[in-house]
Write a structure and sequence with these properties.
Distance between the termini: 71 Å
Order of helices and strands: EHEEEEEEEEEH
Number of strands: 10
Number of helices: 2
Low-confidence stretches: none
Largest sheet: 10 strands, antiparallel
Strand content: over 45%
Oligomer: single chain
Shape: elongated
Helix content: under 10%
Mean pLDDT: 92
Length: about 170
């Protein structure tokens, strides 16, 4: 730290257990590790931040929808006030997805995220099962009032009518 100019020249590398956020996202939970290589050069603030965060082989359990994201991985590149997201993963039931694009790190956190769905299996393991393929784009503030556009194509869909009536017997 240069006290006269108040500029910094800092760097940090390491690893972080992703489970550290589980109390904040409960009942959802995440496990795995993130590695980081970050630097701050110049006047302290987001404009001076650069580097990357990498995630591989992580899992996210989402009990609200009875599913788990598996093999979550990718890179978040940081360059000042912009994060470049390049992530991918799979669902436990089958299929995969990718999410790519820039996100501003200042309010209202504008972004343009391109999402690809590749044979995603959607099921509650009781009353329905289908697959989804598609391309979506979310653009605008990530905190709300953004625009989601694109197309999702659903494959063969199986619906167990007996479960809709409150019984779990076979139809």
């Amino acid at each position: 730290i240069d006290e006269a100019s108040r500029n910094v020249d800092l760097s940090s590398t390491g690893e972080l257990q992703l489970g550290i956020v589980n109390r904040m996202i409960a009942p959802t939970s995440i496990n795995g590790q993130a590695s980081f290589d970050l630097a701050m050069k110049g006047q302290p603030g987001l404009d001076a931040l650069s580097g990357s965060i990498q995630i591989s082989g992580s899992n996210v359990a989402i009990p609200q929808v009875a599913n788990t994201i598996t093999d979550l991985g990718g890179t978040i590149g940081l360059d000042g006030t912009v994060a470049q997201v390049a992530m991918n993963g799979a669902l436990r039931a089958g299929g995969g997805f990718t999410v790519n694009g820039p996100v501003q790190l200042t309010a209202p956190f504008d972004g343009t995220l391109n999402v690809s769905l590749n044979g995603i299996v959607l099921t509650d393991n009781i009353s329905y099962e289908t697959t989804a393929d598609g391309q979506l784009v979310y653009s605008g503030p990530l905190v709300g009032n953004g625009n989601l556009s694109g197309q999702i194509d659903f494959g063969e869909t199986e619906i167990n009518i007996a479960t809709a009536g409150g019984t779990s017997g076979a139809a």
